[in-house]
Specification:
By secondary structure, the protein is an alpha/beta fold. 18% of the residues lie in helices and 31% in strands. The protein folds into 2 domains: 2-224, Spore Coat Polysaccharide Biosynthesis Protein SpsA, Chain A (Alpha-Beta Complex); 253-444, Hexapeptide repeat proteins (UDP N-Acetylglucosamine Acyltransferase, domain 1, 3 Solenoid), CATH 2.160.10.10. The strands form 6 sheets. Strands 13, 14, 16, 17, 19, 20, 22, 23, 25, 26, 28, 30, 33 and 36 form a 14-stranded parallel beta sheet that branches. Strands 12-15-18-21-24-27-29-31-34-37-39-40 form a 12-stranded mixed beta sheet, covered by helices on one side. Strand 4, helix 2 and strand 5 (73-76) form a beta-alpha-beta unit. Helix 1 (32-42) packs across helix 2 and helix 6 (178-185) crosses helix 7. The longest helix has 21 residues, at 230-250. The protein binds uridine-diphosphate-N-acetylglucosamine and magnesium ion. Magnesium ion binds next to loops.
Length: 450
C-alpha cells in the first residue's frame, strides 16, 4: 500500500534571521529538508507533498532526488498562515483518499525512519501523535493527556503556567486517518497568540468528536528536536555529526576525536580506517581500508585507496591510489588522479593532473593540466606553466623523468621517458626521450663537456 506524506516547509523561519528559507540551511553538508525526506523514504513513504514557499520551490526536486525520491510534489502556500493552514492548502491539492497520511514538520532533521515507521504502525485511532518527554524547558507545544490518550495540544505561547510544567512535547510528526483529518481541520480557527491556524488544534477538535488520539512516545527526545534558530541548528548539526561518527566507529573506523571530525551522510569507509582530529569528509567520499586521514584535512568527493595517508591536506573531486602518501600541506584539486605509491606533499598543488604510480613531488610544486609517467621525480619548486594568459595548456611528462629543482615547464610541452631537466630549466620546447636539458630557455646539454 502506498503511503502519503505532507511535509510542512513553507514557514518563513523568522527566528533564523536569514534571507534563505529555514529548511535550506545545512547540517553536515545536507539541507535540513533532506534529512526529513530521507527519513520518510527509509520508512517506505512513497508519495511526498511538500508545502513550500516561492523561495524554496526551485530547490525541491534537487533535494528530493538527492534524498532518493524520483519526484516530490510541491504545493505553494502563500501567504503562510500557520501549520494548520499549510496542511489545509496541501489537502486542497490532493485527491481525497481513505487511509492514513503522515504530516511532518520540515524543521526536524534528527527524525529517522524508525520513528516514522513506529507512528505508521496500524491501530484503532484517528491520529498517532509522536511525542517526547524532554528534560529541559522548551518552546514545544505541550501534550495534554487524559490517561493513555491525548486530548489536546497547547502551544507554549498560549499555555498557562501550569500547562508549561508539562514535560511531554509535541514532536511535529503526525499520522492521521485522512478523512478524519479533513473533517477536523476544517473547524480550526486562528484565535490564539499568533493569530495563526495551528495544526495542533486538530487534536482538540478530534477529541471533541470522540476520536482516539494515541501518543507514540519517542525513546530519545533528541530525535525530534526542532530547529528554529541558528543555535538549534548548530546543536542539531552536532547531534547528527555525532550520530554519523558513531555509525562509522561501530563499523570499524577509528575516530580519534569525534568532536572535531566533521562527516556527512553517505560516506564509505573500509576496515581500520583512522581519522585524526580536525578533519572534514564529505560529498560522498570513499576511503579504502587501513588508510589514515588527518589531522587537519578535508576530503570532498574524494576516492582514497587502501593504506593511503592524507595528512594536513585537501583532496577535492580526485582519486588517490593505494599506498600513496599525501601531505603535509598538499592541495589535490578537481580532476586529479594520484597513482599507487606516489608521494605528494609539503606545499604541492595538483590540479586536473594524472600522476602515475610512484611519482614523487615532495616540495613546493604546482602540477596543473599535466600527465606524469611512472616513477617520475619532480624537484622542489617545479611549476607547470599551464596558462598563457588566455588558455590552459597540457604538460605531458613520461616515465622515469627527473625534473630538476625550480624547473618551469611552459605548456604545451612534452618531456619524453627518461629525460632530465637541470635545476632552474625553463622548458619551452619538447624534450625527446633520454635527453638532458638545462638553462633558460632550456637546451640539450652538449654531449661532451670539456
Ligand atoms: C510546531 C508545533 C508545536 C511543536 C513543534 C515541534 C504548531 C502550531 N506547533 O511549533 O506544537 O511542538 O512544531 O517542532 O504546529 N510551516 C509552514 N507554513 C506555515 C507555518 C509553518 O509550512 O504557515 C512549517 C515550517 O516551515 C516548519 C513547520 O511548519 O517546518 C513548523 O513550523 P514552526 O513555525 O517551526 O512551528 P513551531 O513553533 O516549531
Ligand atoms: Mg519549529
Amino acid at each position: 500500500m502506498s503511503v502519503r506524506a505532507i511535509v510542512l516547509a513553507a514557514g518563513k523561519g523568522t527566528r533564523m534571521k536569514s534571507a534563505r528559507p529555514k529548511v535550506l540551511h545545512e547540517l553536515c553538508g545536507r539541507p535540513m529538508l533532506w534529512y526529513v525526506l530521507r527519513a520518510l523514504g527509509d520508512a517506505g513513504v512513497s508519495e511526498v507533498t511538500v508545502v513550500t514557499s516561492a523561495e524554496l520551490a526551485p530547490h525541491l526536486s534537487g533535494i528530493g532526488a538527492s534524498a532518493g525520491y524520483a519526484s516530490v510534489s510541491a504545493v505553494l502556500q502563500e501567504p503562510q498562515l500557520g501549520t494548520g493552514h499549510a496542511v489545509l492548502t496541501a489537502l486542497a491539492q490532493l485527491a481525497p483518499a481513505e487511509g492514513t497520511i503522515v504530516v511532518l514538520n520540515g524543521d526536524m532533521p534528527l527524525v529517522d525512519g524508525e520513528l516514522v515507521r513506529a507512528a505508521l504502525a496500524p491501530g484503532d485511532r484517528a491520529l498517532a501523535l509522536v511525542t517526547a518527554r524532554m528534560p529541559l524547558p522548551s518552546a514545544f507545544g505541550r501534550v495534554v493527556r487524559a490517561g493513555n490518550l491525548v486530548t489536546r495540544i497547547v502551544e507554549a505561547r498560549d499555555a498557562t503556567d501550569e500547562e508549561l510544567l508539562i514535560d511531554e512535547m509535541n514532536a511535529g510528526l503526525y499520522v492521521y486517518d485522512e478523512p478524519k483529518l479533513r473533517a477536523a481541520i476544517a473547524e480550526v480557527g486562528n484565535d490564539n497568540a499568533q493569530a495563526e491556524y495551528y495544526l495542533t488544534d486538530t487534536i482538540g477538535k478530534l477529541t471533541a468528536r470522540g476520536e482516539r488520539i494515541v501518543p507514540v512516545v519517542a525513546d530519545d527526545y533528541r530525535s525530534v528536536l526542532g530547529v528554529n534558530d541558528r543555535v538549534e541548528l548548530a546543536d542539531a548539526a552536532a547531534l547528527i555529526n555525532r550520530r554519523l561518527c558513531e555509525h562509522h566507529m561501530r563499523a570499524g573506523v577509528t575516530i580519534a576525536d569525534p568532536a572535531t571530525t566533521y562527516l556527512e551522510p553517505d560516506l564509505t569507509f573500509g576496515a581500520d580506517v583512522t581519522i585524526l582530529p580536525n578533519t572534514t569528509i564529505g560529498r560522498r567520499s570513499r576511503v579504502g581500508a587501513h588508510s589514515e586521514i588527518g589531522p587537519n584535512s578535508r576530503l570532498q568527493n574524494a576516492t582514497i585507496g587502501e593504506h593511503v595517508i592524507v595528512a594536513d591536506s585537501v583532496v577535492v573531486d580526485s582519486s588517490i591510489g593505494d599506498f600513496a602518501y599525501v601531505g603535509p600541506w598538499a592541495h589535490i584539486r578537481a580532476g586529479s588522479a594520484i597513482g599507487t605509491g606516489a608521494r605528494i606533499g609539503n606545499f604541492v598543488e595538483v590540479k586536473h593532473a594524472k600522476l602515475a604510480a610512484g611519482v614523487k613531488a615532495g616540495h613546493l610544486t604546482y602540477l596543473g593540466d599535466a600527465t606524469l609517467g611512472e616513477r617520475t621525480n619532480v624537484g622542489a619548486g617545479t611549476i607547470t606553466c599551464n596558462f598563457d594568459g588566455t588558455e590552459k595548456h597540457e604538460t605531458t611528462i613520461g616515465a622515469d623523468v627527473f625534473i630538476g629543482s625550480n624547473s618551469s615547464l611552459v605548456a604545451p610541452v612534452t618531456l619524453g621517458d627518461g629525460s632530465v631537466t637541470g635545476a632552474g630549466a625553463v622548458v619551452i620546447r619538447d624534450v625527446p626521450p633520454g635527453e638532458r636539458v638545462v638553462g633558460n630557455p632550456a637546451r640539450p646539454l652538449p654531449k661532451k663537456i670539456s
